[in-house]
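Re: duplicated header lines in exported structure tokens

Our pipeline writes sequence and tokens for each protein into one text file. With two proteins the header for the second block appears twice in some exports. Here is an export where it did not happen, for reference. First protein block:
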Amino acid sequence: VQMLTKGHHGVKLDAEAWDRLITWIDLNCPYHGTWGEDVGDPGRQRQRRRELLKLYGNVDDDPEAIPPPDPETIYSGHPEPIVSDPSRSRLPSGTSTDRNADTKRSRSASGTYQPILPDPPADLTPSPVICDKRSVELDDGLTMQLALIPAGEFIMGSALGADDEPPPTKVRIERPFWMGAHEITNQQYAQFDPSHDSHFETMLSACHGVHGHPVNRPEQPVVRVSWVQAMAFCRWLSEKTGYRFSLPTEAQWEYACRAGTATPMHYGDLNTDFSQFANMADAKLSHLARDWYILDKPIENPTKYDDWIPKDARFDDGAVLSIAPGKYRPNAWGLYDMHGNVAEWTATDYRPHRSGVVDGRDATITDGRKAVRGGSWRDRPKRCTSNFRLGYPPYQCVYNVGFRVVCE
């Protein structure tokens, strides 16, 4: 659904097609409609089941019958060809392409722009930047560390991403602001709502005798909090400290994540080894394929049916699920886990960037979907870039979405 919403291969669904797809999902993606499709001919059971249903339920129905399709519902046409958008191959005027190789372009014989892949960086250490830090006191001796993000300009969005990412637009952040160096943890959130539980992450197959993998430990980032709850936390924190806290806007979030870079990640491109920088879907994710009854026993050499989550198995960041923020290298402005670990709510309404108009992009004026950034432990790097976007309803509590705060 997320891929289709973001314009996957130019496919567009009408209202009826969306309704059918969502209904199928709501029905729990049925494995098989009949016993015969799963285990073979049920034999005498089929007829006996029908007899009892008719006798005691006054219903004459054969659950094993597969009705033929209605010829009128069969469509043999092909999707319309994708019309390329020339604007997606252009960068805004004034964009510097000298600092980052991945923003350079070369002309092909057809006249279209082609990306030039950058060379691997010689030094993966973020560029040192002098920035201020401050701490905010919470209850029970807890503190929250903030990093000062300077004012400046950057190119927001990407010409090479999904349909909701272009066009690249020059955006100016007029004033510096403080941003949480880390994602809000379960322990910090509990000062606001002691009843909240981030719960467990289920196993990749059936769970028998075990709950799954905990994501509700005090040091882990809080998840399964809605946008409404995250904003309520910000209001509580504002009243408690006397400072004005909120969620970051999309522009603030992407600007802070990039920290002066124009590469897909603040540490490099999609082929850069992220093991020291981010908790994303990697080789370690195979450890989620475990014995049904023994949580701490990963399956040796799991099949694709047990180990089915897409991942970049070239790298191993050492984490299976979300972990305590701050375990990986920060970006140049002292922010940790901007890529991966858990995705993060922003204050902004989710809307496409097609128009290229900045005014109103950061507005929060509707009850519609809200923008989420950064990707999580369950996402490959391409879904954790500085410009990748998702949108969720403000009431939805998502299993891998948390938040961090800004203070202005």
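Second protein block, exported in the same file:
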Amino acid sequence: MRAASRTRLRALTLFPEGRTPRYDSEAIAREDWDPVEVSMQESEEELTLSTTAATARISLQPLRVGFEDGSGRTFAVDDEELGMGAVETPGADVFSEPLGSA
């Protein structure tokens, strides 16, 4: 699995093996970002990508992602138990009601 990061946008995209990386997004109008220096630290448990403005922490087992701004404030951190946006609603039609009925 490969990962790509748009540092100023604080977005992380994971690409399964064999899938061609695509960086385009309808949600992002700007494409002319200045390059920034990114440092990477890797251990058996975690991959950390850091710039002067933000840090992305990717826990590997189980896979969890979280972010931290330059002041150390965390945001968009995956829940330890639920993971990366997992929502389980037994018997629900997840295509027409992805979060279940109200």
